[in-house]
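Record type: ASSEMBLY
Status: queued
Input:
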Amino acid sequence: MNTIDPPADASGAMITLRNVNKWYGSFHVLKDINLQVEKGERIVICGPSGSGKSTTIRCINRLEEHQTGDIIVNGIPLTNDLKNIDSVRREVGMVFQHFNLFPHLTVLQNCTLAPIWVRKTPQKEAHAIAMEYLEKVKIPDQADKFPGQLSGGQQQRVAIARSLCMNPEVMLFDEPTSALDPEMIKEVLDTMIQLAESGMTMICVTHEMGFAKTVANRVIFMDEGQVVEENNPNDFFNNPQNERTQLFLSQILQH
Amino acid sequence: MPKFTPLPDLPAPPNTVGIRGWLRSNLFNSPLNSIVTIVAAYIVVQGLWWFIDWGVINANLIGETRADCPVDANGEKSGACWVFVYTRLEQFIYGFYPPDQIWRINIVFIIFALCIGALVFEKTPWKNWIAGFTLLVFPFIAFYLLNGDAFGLTKVDTHKWGGFTLTLVLAVTGIVASLPIGILLALGRRSEMPIIRSICIVYIEFWRGVPLITVLFMASVMLPLFMSAGVETDKLVRALIGIIMFQSAYMAEVVRGGLQAIPKGQYEAAQALGLSYWKTMTFIILPQALKLMIPGIVNTFISLFKDTSLVLIIGLFDLLAIVQSAIVDPEWPQVSVEGYLFVALMFWVFCFGMSRYSQSLERKLSTGHH
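Status: finished
Output:
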């Protein structure tokens, strides 16, 4: 195990996972996950399917419940208290593999709904913020269309803008390009790179190794519900330490 | 380097598009189908001709008594005797409501028609306000107008309500009340809280398991036996509560079906944005689910509308009951077909209207997904 032991005082970290365990029934999906993410850090998590990488980031905003261990987001420990969960979710934005845009609302409404009803932002201000982020993801001209009228890449960029409108401290990406046509992957990755350059704290579950090389500060490799290897991208790709990591990299980088 | 230029679009062959194409592919696409088409067309035309002959050409519309519909030597009428429906129309529509008070029902009808018309018409301004008025204010106006006993209006007992007025009162109240209760029951049944879930399951399964006739009978005959002597609730109110209880259980299952069709990702996206349970339901899940449920909901509405005629067995005279009692009047022999046709037409117009409106609503709400 190459995991770095978390420091005793983790108050400076944006996200801390300490000995996190999770079971689906009797199946042990996450085994003693330790992870610390500093403010502005960009983490890429990779690994074979079923390795627990999506589950890990879904635990961070309580889409999944962990059974033992601590998760601390920007100083707020995640407990069963609903208010607590709400305040953690305010800090954390999430982008899904299948976009999960609200199909009955226009692009603009998708982006303004949560700011208006959760953050109580006045409608005009919420519109202005939404248009600003839609411009950042380069689709302000689609604001009045419905998600069903956009391409996959455009939908995913709307999903990114929708999360950003809530002004989160951390962005979680759960395989954001896996459901896209090859021609559209680049536009989404470009948006994510642009976001990384702006200093956002990001945790990305992805198989885009090129993205990991250019953007990540650290790459984490998971298998069988544990963190197998954790390193900076250069060493991770060129000099993997663990046998399992070497096998995984040789398989995905071959083609 | 060769440059890629797509080929130009050519027009489709002429006999595959337009009316000709439609006829060819739908009615005459094989010898057998052509024969079936011709035979069916013959039967339809014959039937229509017979009906027009009986109901229009040889029919009698003007008059006041049965004698205005002449009979031949065998005692057979030459055609339909619409005089019967025409002279009894007031009773069919207003029941036993005091004739000098009928203007009150008419005002209710006019307001109701205006509200529905305004809501159905697409370009009406202030639609939300009109909808709010229809749902929240109109029921009180209608109640005080019909029931009286306030604002200087004389009281008209509910046992004098009848005919099509009663049918509409039962159906509209049932429809308006059962949808929200059904939604709450469906949400309760999918709740993660075991007590709420159990209560909803027991309620839904109980009311779905008993026939409406039994419910009405219990409401009107059994319930008063259990009540203490002084407490007397109105028979119409009891019937209405029975209908609402019964229909809301059905509605709950329709709504649950729609809720289950919404992908899990929608809940997750809403949660990730920090929306609470009720906000998720109000803004994300129910608007999508209700759209999917329109056919099922309207189906339930239509069956409710027709089921109201069951109140006959507890002595309430809805449209069907009142026409049936008029048919047996010895002064009006041989008019049952006309009477039933009139009832059928009234029910059909309203049910068909609901059906058409639901289809246009589905089209209007379509946003290019699913």
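Annotation: Residues 277-307 of chain B form the longest helix (31 residues).
Annotation: The mean pLDDT of chain B is 84.
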